[in-house]
Amino acid sequence: MTRKAYLPYRSSFRALIAIAFTAAVTALAADLGRAKPEDVGLSSERLDRIEQVLGAKVRAGEIPGYVALVARRGKIAYFEANGVQDPNTKKPMTRDSIFRIYSMTKPITSVAAMILVEEGKIKLSDPIGMYLPELANLSVATNADTAKDPSEIQTRPAKNPVRVLDLLLHTSGFTYGFFKPFPGGGAVEQMYLDGGVNDLNISNAELVTRISKLPLKFEPGSTWWYSRSTDVLGRLIEVVSGMTLGEFFEKRITKPLGMVDTAFTVAPNKVGRFVEPFDEDKKGLILQYTDPTKLVKFEAGGQGLTATAMDYARFAHMLLKGGALGDNRILGRKTVELMTMNHVGPNINPGPFFLPGQSHGYGLLGAVRTEGPRAPAPLNAMDGSVGEFYWAGYAGTYFWVDPKEELVGVYMMQSVKHLLAYATSFKTLVVQSVVK
Questions:
Q1: Span 390-401, pLDDT tens digits
Q2: How far is Cα 55 from Cα 315, in angstroms, rounded to an integer?
Q3: Are 430 and 48 in contact (CB under 8 A)?
Q4: Mean of the per-residue pLDDT values for the chain?
Q5: Which of 363, 303, 307 is nearest to 337 (CA)?
Q6: What is the model's pLDDT at position 13?
Q7: Which of 77, 125, 155, 178 could form a disulfide with 139 if both were Cys (CB 3.0 to 4.6 A apart)?
Q8: CA-CA distance, 358 to 374, in Å (whole number)?
């Protein structure tokens, strides 16, 4: 073959490879196609306010950058990256930048648990001691609200077992050690800190062992209190499935949904896409930024994953579509319906620190908008529809799904101190763009 003949052949070969790659990517994202905002009832002019408002925060140096995604009726209408991915290297933020998503891990763990429920391997009513024997006979602190020091804590045997449902609903009686300075926090939280529950260099099994030696903050099933419940649920999933939590996620959720960048550890070939905050933002935090670019030992079902905005949008659309994305069904429609309705009824005390806020309840994977008078809530603006569900991640990530409007929003940055303000601003900026 002459050089003259070879060059077109090489070009054609490269073209074929490019076409094949594009086709593969297109097939993967076919069920999350693109649309002009006006074609799905949104206003382009109004969506531009996202950049005008949040982009101004980047230009003012308040945050390094962000990625924002808006989809309606199954089509992506807005997907933009702004600012820098790492303020020290000045590398630009991109739409495939990878973020620590902290508590946005929880909905994924909840879905994993409900897969096992659907398969008859566990029941929501099962005591977790059936699978985690060390948690079969727990004690409850009787003076958690008045004790000033762990030495003052008095206990009694729990009247009720912790059920799988309690782990999903955060009515287990477990707590978070870092809640000590928050409303309702105190001596039990100090016991969690002293007991090494915040240690990241332990296995999921070791976490459960350490928690088993500590008293519950509340009687199981009695009170909503955000906690290590989902981390314990992650360990239960491992025991029942015979896989690590990461393996179960990959096999049953992330791979089928095409969530190619969602994992507990950022792969070496993806480290260049990992997002970092300002150095100043790492100071004085109750929960430290993790380093998932190194091998992660603790696969925390409540806080450990990293992901891209697109990956999470695919997960959110699976929920919006009743448990399936394209040809891949993860859950049944009625299961998703069960997970996304409020379960904090009159028999459950919302507790002194009910994060969802007024006119919001809590389902089996996050907060849910309910009927009734509205008020500003920490994690959700007043705008939106009854029945929408949502949650956020400590380091600055947020999502919501509005089934009535077929609307999905995903916002990702890395700035703990700006989470509440920017997440709720993003929500309002998206909702005001709905014109049809």
A1: 999 999 999 999
A2: 26
A3: no
A4: 93
A5: 363
A6: 44
A7: 155
A8: 7
* Token pair belonging to 123: 């029941």
Distance CA 341, CA 425 (A): 25
User: Which residue is listed with tokens 């996620």?
Assistant: 249
Taking a C-beta distance cutoff of 8 angstroms, is the pair 292, 306 a contact? Answer: yes
pLDDT per residue as tens digits for the range 350-390: 998 899 988 899 999 999 999 989 988 889 999 999 999 99
Q: What is the dihedral of CA 51, 57, 58, 59, to 10 degrees?
A: 90
For residue 31, what pLDDT band results from cuts at 50, 70 and 90? low
CA distance 63 to 277: 7
Specify burial of residue 151 (Cβ count, 10 A radius: 0-12, 13-18, 19+): exposed
The overall pTM is greater than 0.85: yes
- Span of 10-19, 48-57, 212-221, 337-346 with lowest mean pLDDT: 10-19
10 Å CB burial of residue 90 (0-12, 13-18, 19+) is exposed
Question: Does residue 19 surpass a pLDDT of 80?
Answer: no
Domain 110-241 in CATH 3.30.420.40 = no
- Beta bridge partners, 69, equal 79, 410
- The tens digit of pLDDT for each residue in 153-205 reads 999 999 999 999 999 999 999 999 999 998 899 999 999 999 999 999 999 99
Residue type, 130: M
Place of tokens 């949040």: 54
- DSSP code string of 214-277: S-BSS-TTTB----THHHHHHHHHHHHHSS-HHHHHIIIIIHHHT-TT-BSS--GGGGGGB---
| CATH 3.40.710.10 residue spans of the chain | 34-96+244-431, 110-241
Distance CA 358, CA 268 (A): 43
* Helical pair 229-241 and 106-118, crossing angle rounded to 10 deg: 40
Q: Is 77 helix (H, G, I), strand (E, B) or coil?
A: strand
CATH topology of domain 34-96+244-431: Beta-lactamase (3.40.710)
Using CB atoms within 10 Å of the CB of residue 302, give its burial: 0 to 12 exposed, 13 to 18 middle, 19+ buried. buried
SS3 content of the chain, % helix, strand, coil (to 5): 40, 15, 45
Q: Show Cβ contacts of residue 132 under 8 Å, excluding neighbours closer than 6 positions.
A: 208, 212, 232, 235, 236, 239
Q: Quickly tell me which residue has 């976490």 as its tokens.
A: 207
